[in-house]
Amino acid sequence: MGTRFLLFSFLVCLLFCISCTPTNKIAYFQNAKDTTYRQSLKVIDAPLQNNDFISISISSANAEASAAFNPISNAAGEKTGAGAVKGGFQYVGYLINSDGKIELPILGYIQAAGLTKKQLKENITNTLLKRQLLIDPIVDIKFLNFEVTIMGEVAGPTVINVPSEKISLIKALAMAGDLTIYGRRDNVMLIREEDGVRKTTHINLTSADFLNSEYYYLRPNDIVYVEPNKNKVAQSGRGQQILPLVITSVSFLFLILDKVIK
Fold first, then answer.
1. What is the rounded CA–CA span in Å between residue 158 and residue 172?
2. What is the mean pLDDT of residues 182-203?
């Protein structure tokens, strides 16, 4: 009976050792202290780029004069754009063309790519005032294609639409079901396009320094890729073949010794 118990204990320990993962490989924000960051993280107003899709609404005290700058289409009829639906109508979105410009009613072509939303808002406002088209105009600009892509070793790879135009990397990963046990938390890759150039950055989520990182918040069209760890790679290769063999061999040995003891 004692020998059988020892063999059983050995098998359980073997399986545990093979499957266990050190805590320092999966815990987030290690060594984080209770503190308050004096310089709070801000959402960076990223420059607009070609092919960005934005909505622009222009209003003033004179609603009739402002209406000319806000074309709308019947939401159930012809598809002329995308945007917020209001009263059965849909405000038209503006696609930034390959020249980096948008075409607004009356104002014509205006440079948009390379400017932040704030800068574009100021340009449109100043143009309206300079040409005396509206008095005290109010210009509001929003992204219509603020999306981030989460892929790799997460529970549910997905593309997330962000109507609020603000999302942290942590929240995006949570919306994708969090990293699996096989995801590398110390080497998450962020792919970001700036000025037509794609750049990659590797982020260590196990470090508390990330909480004050410039990459804490995501930008439109960011791609987050979670790399698989060595355990996942091993399961997909030779390790996946060897592990069942080891377990089968130990189990067979257990049965043989059990019969001999009896």
1. 9
2. 92
Domain 24-41+146-229 has CATH 3.10.560.10: yes
Q: Which of 211, 179, 220, 216 is nearest to 201 (CA)?
A: 216
Q: How far is CA 76 from CA 79, 82, 88, in A?
A: 8, 12, 8
| Domain extents in the chain | 24-41+146-229, 53-143
pTM of the predicted protein model: 0.70
Q: How far apart are the first and last CA of the chain?
A: 9
Question: Taking Cα atoms as reference points, which of 146, 168, 141, 164 lies closest to residue 52?
Answer: 146
Q: What is the pLDDT of residues 237-251, one digit of tens each?
A: 555 556 666 666 666
Domain 53-143 has CATH 1.10.10: no
Nearest alpha carbon to residue 53 among 85, 84, 74? 84
**pLDDT tens digits along 8-45:** 555 555 555 545 555 556 667 676 666 555 555 666 78
Torsion sign over Cα 25, 31, 33, 37: negative
Higher-scoring residue by pLDDT: 146, 236: 146
What is the tens place of the pLDDT at every residue in 55-69? 999 999 999 999 999
CA distance 61 to 138: 9
